[in-house]
Amino acid sequence: MSLDAEEVEKIAHLARIAVTSDEVDALKGELSGILGLVERMSELDTSDILPMAHPLDMPQRLRPDVVTEEDHRDAYQAVAPAVENGLYLVPRVIE
Amino acid sequence: MTDLHLKSIAQLSADLADGQYSSEELTRYFLERIGRLDASLNSVVTVAEEQALAAARVADQRIQAGNAGPLTGIPILHKDIFCTQGVKTACGSRMLDNFISPYDATVVTRLKDAGVVMLGKTNMDEFAMGSSNETSFYGPVKNPWDRERVPGGSSGGSAAAVAARLAVAATGTDTGGSIRQPAALCGITGLKPTYGRVSRYGMIAFASSLDQAGPMTRSAEDAAYLLAAMAGFDERDSTSVYRPVDDYVAQLDQDVRGMKIGVVREFFEEGLNSGMRAAMEAAMDKLRELGAELVDLSLPNSHHSVAAYYVVAPAECSSNLSRFDGVRFGHRCDNPVDLEDLYKRSRAEGFGSEVKRRIMIGAYALSAGYYDAYYLKAQQVRQVIADDFREAFGKVDVLLGPASPETAFRLGEKADDPVSMYLSDIYTIAVNLAGLPALSMPAPLVDGLPAGLQLIGNYFEEGRILNLAHRLQLASDWHLQMPEGY
């Protein structure tokens, strides 16, 4: 698997990471190398194998539907880059 | 009050109970060691002196009041992946360089409740992605055995600090070998528990179906004490297992005669260097002397584990790390023109190159049209690897092999080649995919550098591998080997 610049840019967009053209050049080789390593798993025939999403085969525990957590909004927003009146601030989305 | 850094948890605990010294004195002793010795290692990123001394005074009151446990007043370090309330928690990343956690991880809470004193936080690969501790925003950690070499990763700071006796013990996390490989390279004992045994709440997530926290210590006995406090069900982690915790300390002294140990053939094939092989043979001879029965055993699909891991882990990481968006916490870029620019530049500036690579591999593997070829396929390979283990544990009690194919490599040696770096975890990754418990413990040195013996247990059999490791440590002195100058 060998990725070209356009594919790398598309992946970077999916990942929401800004990349410079120098970075795209380096990433082409690096990501292709990793995918080369990954593709070795195609040697293994897995046609009848059930996918394993999780190491433990266990049912989810249920708990009573009651409030157990207190309001920590002020403490949690104290580490935010920009807040006002309990709201997180971002650049204008709707004109 | 000399050589306190050479004492075990049980010895320190007895001395504290005896009033030979206070936890405050013990805490000052280790703070002084960190201050004097860590400049050469860079293993500690945050020293929490004030909080440590306050916790030590509380511990001293508990001891005097007669309600202390075995860990009360014992000073340890936490890997900087664990959220610690009021203390910077940066996870080795510029992204969280400004993050003072508003809450404690469950591991931190449980150890606090046991009376442990937190000295500070240890350096690590950025977001636990790395095998050499070179991806940290705070610079690489040096291996105390040879400061030109890496300590392993991602829990490299914890491993180096414990090896240099800068703390009694440290916590670590292991997603693909991040406790066992640095423990091996630094000559300490490190245990990755069964997936779900220790809560992941407040442990900054890398790959949610693989991540597990565990102790990094100087002996299996110390590890048993720490794990006893760390393990247990947590309402706040939906993957935490509702099941009683075994008495690991009580199990340490059990007889190991007749214990059946499978020597994993694939871990002794080409790629294992000859010195490492000799060290493993010496440890195996000692196990035979203790009455264990060693048999040849195959995990025929284990060589597929690195490939499957580098789909599963990046896929989960790309999803987990989407929370770092420059909005609610962490780094935000200056003057964003719109929301997308805010996301993209905050993440470009906040993440280092290895983290970006893994997020991008994951985003690619999960993208439309590629899911079946990568993620689904990797989950099927994962099942095949787990099946190998299930079959193996039908025949033997414990599996054995090296934790790493080689001793500590040189700083910079693999830093520019992600694939060769990834292959340094070939003997540890399969265990994470299956979700099994495993530990690395010191074997005889190889050319003056530590070598790690890996013991793998069946699900929830942490007690059995700690028991075997402890008996081996009673019969040998490899775990007492120390780097010069510390």
Q: Could you characterize what this model shows?
A:
- The complex is a heterodimer of chains A (95) and B (486).
- With 95 residues, chain A is mostly helical.
- Chain A has a domain at 5-41: Histone, subunit A.
- Helix content of chain A is 35%, strand content 4%.
- A two-stranded antiparallel ribbon of chain A has the order 1-2.
- The model of chain A has no long low-confidence stretch (mean pLDDT 93).
- Among the domains of chain B are: 4-255, Alpha-Beta Complex (Amidase signature (AS) enzymes), CATH 3.90.1300.10; 304-377, no CATH class.
- Chain B has helices at 9-18, 23-37, 49-65, 106-113, 156-163, 180-186, 220-230, 248-251, 274-289, 305-320, 339-350, 353-365, 372-392, 418-422, 429-434, 462-474; strands at 44-47, 75-79, 117-122, 169-174, 189-192, 212-217, 260-264, 293-297, 398-402, 438-446, 449-457.
- Chain B starts with 8 loop residues before the first helix and ends in a 12-residue tail after the last helix.
- The interface between A and B is large, with 51 and 72 residues.
Give the secondary structure arrangement, pairings included.
The complex is a heterodimer of chains A (95) and B (486).
Chain A lengths: L4 H10 L6 H18 L34 H5 L5 E2 L2 E2 L7
Chain B lengths: L8 H10 L4 H15 L6 E4 L1 H17 L9 E5 L26 H8 L3 E6 L33 H8 L5 E6 L5 H7 L2 E4 L19 E6 L2 H11 L17 H4 L8 E5 L9 H16 L3 E5 L7 H16 L18 H12 L2 H13 L6 H21 L5 E5 L15 H5 L6 H6 L3 E9 L2 E9 L4 H13 L12
Parallel strand pairs in B: 2-3, 2-4, 7-8, 7-9
Antiparallel strand pairs in B: 1-3, 4-6, 5-6, 5-10, 9-11, 10-11
